Amino acid sequence: MTQQSEKVFQSDIVIAGAGITGVSLARELSRYDVSVIVLERAEDVAEGATKANSGIVHAGYDAKPGTAKAKYNVLGAAMFPALCAELSVPYRKCGALVVGFDDNDRQTLEDLLRRGVTNGVKNLRLLNREEALAAEPSLNPEIVCALDVPESAIVSPYELAYAMADDAALNGVRFHFDQEINSVSAAAGSGWQLATARGDVFRCRVFINCAGASGAALHNMISDQPLQMTHRRGQYYLLDRAPYQPFTRTVFQCPSAMGKGVLVSQSVHGNLLLGPNAEDIDDPLDTATTAEGLASVLARAQRTWPALSTRSNITNFSGVRAHLSTDDFQIGPVSGAPGAFEAIGIESPGLSSAPAVAVDLAASVASFLSLRKKGNLVPPRRPKKPFHDMTDEERAEAVQNDPAYGNIVCRCEVVTEAEIREAIRRPVGARSIDGVKRRTRAGMGRCQGGFCSPRVAQIIAEETGVCLQSVTKCGGDSLLLVDTVESFLKGGAGND
Amino acid sequence: MDKVITCINCPVGCRMTVTLSDAGAFVSVTGNTCPRGAKYAEQECTRPLRVVTAVLPVPGSETPLSVKTSAPVPKELIPEIMRVLGKTSVSLPVAVGDVVVPNVLQTGADIVATRELSSR
Amino acid sequence: MTDQHVDLLIIGAGPAGLAAAIAAREAGIESILVLEREKEPGGILRQCIHNGFGLHRFSEELTGPEYAKRDVDRVRELDIPVRCGTTVLSVSPDRVVTCVSPEFGFSRLSAGAVVLAMGCRERPRGALCTPGSRPAGIYSAGTAQRFVNLEGYMPGRRVVILGSGDIGLIMARRMTLQGAKVLACVEIMPYSSGLNRNIVQCLQDYGIPLYLSHTVTDIHGRERLTGVTVSRVDENRKPVPGAEICFDCDTLLLSCGLIPENELSQGAGVELSPLTSGPVVSETLETSVPGIFACGNVLHVHDLVDHVSAESFRAGRAAAAFVRASSPPAPVFTVKDGPGVRGTVPQKISARPSEDVSLMFRPADVYRNAAAVVECGGQEVLRKKAMIYTPGEMAVLTLKKEVFESLPDKVITVRMEGEKQHG
Questions:
Q1: Smallest CA–CA separation between B84 and chain C, in Å?
Q2: Fewest CB within a 10 Å sphere: which of B70, C77, C292, C333?
Q3: Whether residues B10 and B31 fall in one domain
C-alpha cells in the first residue's frame, strides 16, 4: 500500500469492525440523526469470523439460561425472517437435528431440551432412533436418539453483512476499509481519538468496539477491567452444490466445552458444509487449515454421515472465534470508559444474535447521546434475482434490457458480467476477487475461479479504474499478477 | 567421456549411455532399443536442437503475439533468443507465418508469428 | 416454442466441436450451428502456444494456435456458422438447447442432433484438500497459461509446480523462458504422467528438479503466497513426517488432472461413467440419450489433440447419419474394463459397426514388456504388444468392423498383461 498523507476524520460515532455485529449496529444507528463511521482493518465487510462460520441461525437451545448468549440468540433468531426478507438475503428455516450416539449423549440432549425450553425455544422434541432415521435416512444408523430443532435455520452470513452494510451506507454511514486501529484514547474534554496504522486520526463522541478478534485488545486500551481473550479456530470443508444433498436439516453432534460440535449442513445455496473443529491458537489472523484439523473434521462428519466422500470438495477454510474466559458475550458500556461501548467475545451464536445485539446497543448509544430517529429512511436496495435462479423468460428479459446479462463469466455458478459489475457498484461494493466471489458466487463453484478469475479481474480493473496488475484476491498485498510479460521480457529474459 | 540421457521419442524413455570423444564427438551409444533412439542420442549429445516458442507484447493489442522458431535451433542459444525477443517490436496487423525476426542469430531459422492479430 | 431449428447443434468450438462440424458438413448436413462461449473459436489450443501438435494428423509439428487455425479456416471455407460469446445454459433430453449471448440475447434452439464438445476443466486446489493458508498466487496451470499467453501478464516470479502432467511441465518452461524462476516440480506419484519429451525439454533443459513421490503439504502466506512445504509420501501417498522441504515462492501452479465438464450433459439426462467422468457412449459416440453425441475431452481426457480430432470426425459423421433419420443400431456388445484397465471408451458397440472401432483407455499403472488384450467369451480378439504402457498415454486398440460378425459373446473385455512397475 502506498503511504498516504495523514488525515483527520470527525464523526459522532466510530464503530470498530465491519463484521456482522458492527454492520448490524451501523445499520441500527443509521436510523438515528447521527454521523457514523465504521473502521475496518480488512479491505471489505465480513472479512473475519463473519465470512467463515457455519451460517446457522441457531434456535437457542445451547446457551446457558440467563446468559447474554441465551437472551440475544433467541431474540435475534426471531428477527431473521423479516430482516432477510427486507434485505433480500437468502434464509431458510430448514430445521436441525442434534444426534446422540450413546447414553451420555442422550443425557446431553435431554439437558439441551430443558435448556431450550427455559430459553424460550419453540417446538423442540426428542426423537428416538427410528424417528430420526425416518427424518434423515442418510444418518449413521448407529445413532440412538436425536433432538429435533425445527426452528434452526440457515443463512448466508456474509451476504447478510453486505446487505446490512449497503443499507447503512445508503442511510449515511461511512465505511473506511484497510484501517487498522493502533490506539484508542480519551480525547481532551470528552470523546475519543483513534489512530490507525496508516496514520489517520478519527475523532468521535462515542466509540463502539465490535472488533471481533481484536475486541479484547481495543477493550484493554480503554477499560479499567482488562480482559483475556482466546482465539478459537474452526476448520471446514465446503462441498459442491448437488441436486440431492444427504440431509435436508442441519445435523449437529453433541456440543462440548469447545463448541457446538461438528455439523453437516446445507448452505442456502445448496453446498454442503462440514465442520468446524475447535482449536485454540495464538494468532487471531491465522486462518490456515491443517492436515490434523481437516482430518478430525472429516472423521467426525463421517460419524454423522458414513457415506461422506470429499470427491466433490470445493475448498477448505477456517474461521477464528473470539472466546472470552467468561464464556459469554460482553455487551454494553465499557467499564471505566464513559462514551465507549462494546459487543465483544462474539463467538457462536454471534450471527444469530447480531440483529438483537444491535437493537439493544443502538438504544443504549442513542440514549447516551440523546439521539432522535430520522424522519425518513432510504429503503433497502432491491437486488435483482441472480441469473442462476431466473426462469428462461426472466433470463430473456434480463438480457434484452442489459446485454451484459448475456455474458456468462462464471460458468460453474452461471454468473453474468452484469451481476459482477453490479456487485462492484453496490453502495459498499466489491473491490477484490474474493469480494466479487462472495457477493455474486463467481468463482465459488467447482473450478474455484480457474476459468473466471482472469475475467473478473478485468472487470474489477475496468470498474474501479485501476490496472489489471493492481487487482487483488482479498486486498493488501494479495496481488493476482506480479507484472506484465513485457516488462519481464525487457528486464532480461531467459533462464539463469 | 560418458553421458546418460533419456530418450524422448516414445514413452519407453530408454536411459541411454552415450560415449563421446575428448573433443566431444559422438563415439557410440548403448541402452537404446531402436534406431530412432541412437539418432536422437547422437544429435542430443553433440548439437541439441529445440524449437523455441514464446509470447511477446504488441502495442495496441491486448493479446500478446505467440511466436516460434521456424526450425529447431541450438539449445544453448535459447536465452539469447529470448533477449532478442525482448528487443523486438512488432506492429499490427500480424498474420500467421509472418516473419518477426529473420534468420535469428544466424541460425537459419526465422522467428515467425503463430497467431493472427488484427488491427482494431 | 423455440426460436430456431437446426439439424445439428454443436456445443463448443474447440478442436472437438470444429472437427465434428467439418465432418457433418462433409457428410452433407447443411443446417449446422456451433456455439462457443469464448470470443473466438479454437478452444484451449489458443493458449497452448508450444509446438508438438498435429504429428499424427498433419505429419508436422504445429503450435496450438496453428493447429486450431487449420480447423477454423476449414469451417469458414465450408461456411459453417460459429456463434461466439455464447454460453449454453441447458440441453434437454429432446434436444432443445437454451443459450445466451450479449449479441443474440437469450435463445431456445431445437436440434435434430446435438454434439457435446465442451472440453474439460482442471482439478482445483479444493479437490486436493491441501491444508494451509489461502493466499493469492495459487493457480491451476491452465489459468496461469491463459494469463501469460493470452493476457500478457505474469502471475509470479518464483514458482513451484504441483503435478507433473504435461500442462504443468509446459508451464514450467513457459514461466522460465518468460523470465520467472521455477524452483521445483512436485509429483505425488512415483512416475510422471507427462511425456518424456516434456520432462527433458521443459524441466531438464532448465535445471528444474522433479520430485517424484512428493506433494505439497502446507501453504504459507496471508495475502500473497510466501512459500510451500513439500513432503515425501509413502507408497500409500501419505506424507512421511520429517522429510519436508520448504520452498520460498510466490506462486504455486497446480497441474493435478483434468475433469470432463459434463454439467450440461447431466442436465440432458446423459448417463456418465464414474471412470471417465464423461458420457457412456456407443462406437458412434452417441450417449445414452438418442441424438446426443459426445467427443473430445468432454467424453474422456485425451493427451493428443490428434486423437480428439479423429474421434470428433467420427462423432460428426454419426450425428449426420442420425440427422438423416437413420435410427442408429441398438448397442449389443458391452465393453468392460479388465485388470489393469481404466475407463475404456466406447462402453457399448452395436452388432454391425459401420466403421472400425477404436477402443481407448488408460492403463492403471506403468506396464513394461506388456500387451493390451481384448477378449470376448474366453476368446482373444486382439493383442497389442508394446514395450511400455503408461497411464499418461491413452492406449488405442482398433478392432476391424468384420471382427464383430463372429464374436462368441456380448461382453468384450480389455485387460493388461505384463510387468507392473509399481505393484
A1: 12
A2: C77
A3: yes
B107 within some domain? yes
Closest CA to A368 of A479, A485, A207, A476: A207
CB contact under 8 A, B82 and A485: no
Total domain count, chain B = 2
Collect all residues of chain A within an 8 Å Cβ-Cβ radius of residue B53: none
Q: Which of residues 226-265 of A touch C (CB under 8 A)?
A: 237-238
C206 contacts in A (CB within 8 Å)? 495
Q: What pLDDT does residue B13 have?
A: 84
pLDDT of residue A243: 75
Nearest chain A residue (CA) to B55: A485
A228-246: per-residue pLDDT in tens?
Answer: 999 999 999 999 988 778 9
Domain extent, residue B38, equals 2-47
A469–chain B nearest CA distance, Å: 14
Residues in chain A with CB shorter than 8 Å from the CB of C135 are 473, 478
The answer to whether A375 faces chain C, any CB pair under 8 Å, is: no
- How far is residue A425's CA from residue A366's CA, in Å, rounded to a whole number? 31
For A:475-494, CB contacts with B below 8 A are 484-486, 489-494
Integer Cα distance of A157 and B5 in angstroms: 58
pLDDT class of A115 with cuts at 50, 70, 90: very high
Q: Which residues pair with C219 in a beta bridge?
A: C228
Q: ∠A329-A335-A336 over CA atoms, to 5°? A: 160
Tell if the CB–CB gap between B10 and C388 is shorter than 8 Å: yes
Question: What would the mean pLDDT of A208-227 be, rounded to a whole number?
Answer: 97
**What is the average per-residue pLDDT within A402-424?**
97
Tell me the pLDDT tens digit for each residue of C319-359: 999 999 767 778 899 999 999 999 999 999 999 998 999 99
- Structural domain boundaries enclosing A398: 387-486
Position A491 pLDDT exceeds 90: no
The model carries a pTM of 0.95
- Which pLDDT band holds residue A5 (cuts at 50, 70, 90)? low
Q: Would you call A485 and B79 a contact, using CB atoms and an 8 Å cutoff?
A: no
A432, closest residue in chain C (CA to CA): C136
The grid coordinates of residue A397 equal 428479459
Let me know whether A124 and A251 are in one domain: yes
Contact C212, C98 (CB under 8 A): no
**Contact check, Cβ <8 Å, B53/C63:** yes
Contact with chain B for residue C392, Cβ under 8 A = yes
C-alpha to C-alpha distance for A265 and A267, rounded to whole angstroms: 6
Contacts of C89 in chain A (CB under 8 A): 395, 408, 414
List of long-range contacts for C376-381, beta carbons under 8 Å, 24+ apart: C376/C333, C376/C407, C376/C408, C376/C409, C376/C411, C376/C412, C376/C413, C377/C407, C377/C408, C377/C409, C377/C411, C378/C408, C378/C409, C379/C407, C379/C408, C381/C407, C381/C412
What's the mean pLDDT in B72-98?
A: 96
Decide: A171 and A31 in contact? Cβ < 8 Å: yes
How large is the average pLDDT for residues A297-315? 93
Q: Say which CATH number the domain at A270 has.
A: 3.30.9.10
Residues of A with catalytic roles: 58
What is the residue type of C367?
Y
Q: What is the rounded average pLDDT of the residues A425-447? A: 96
- 8 A C-beta contact, residue A147 and residue A98: yes
